[in-house]
Specification:
Elements (H helix, E strand, L loop, with lengths): L2 H8 L9 H8 L4 H20 L3 E2 L1 H4 L9 H13 L3 E9 L10 E7 L9
Helix pairs in contact: 2-5
């Protein structure tokens, strides 16, 4: 048996990345670059809601983000602010868009129901 075949047989699935604990860790990352990313996402979400009658979706605000915003921070922020009640789910879904492999993956549209407070950490 070759090493490649053995590697294939020994492969075990990795745990899912998007667990609540992982999303919370990304959303509360204290590093200055991640705090800045959340600030940019917050502004983009508020602007997106203003332009779209309260509707918020990554495909509608992606163009408002700087290239330095990590993709994982976007999803973690949206989930975190949904959990805290600033965003609420709607019945509508849209493709995520963008240039990555998830461009055609669909995700729910949310509605901004309360202003997201300024990011301090």
């Amino acid at each position: 048996m070759t090493a490649a075949v053995q590697d294939t047989l020994d492969w075990t699935p990795r745990p899912p990345r998007d667990t609540p604990a992982n999303l919370r860790a990304v959303h509360t990352d204290w590093r200055p670059s991640r705090v800045e990313a959340r600030q940019v996402i917050r502004v983009a979400i508020h602007e997106c809601a203003r332009r779209n009658g309260g509707r918020v979706h990554v495909s509608l605000f992606r163009h408002l983000l700087t290239p330095l915003v990590p993709p994982a921070a976007i999803g973690a922020a949206v989930v975190g602010w949904t959990t805290k009640g600033y965003l609420e789910l709607t019945d509508e879904v849209l493709p995520m868009g963008g240039t990555a492999g998830n461009a055609t993956k669909r995700s729910p549209v949310r509605r901004l129901v309360a202003a997201i407070p300024p990011i301090t950490r």
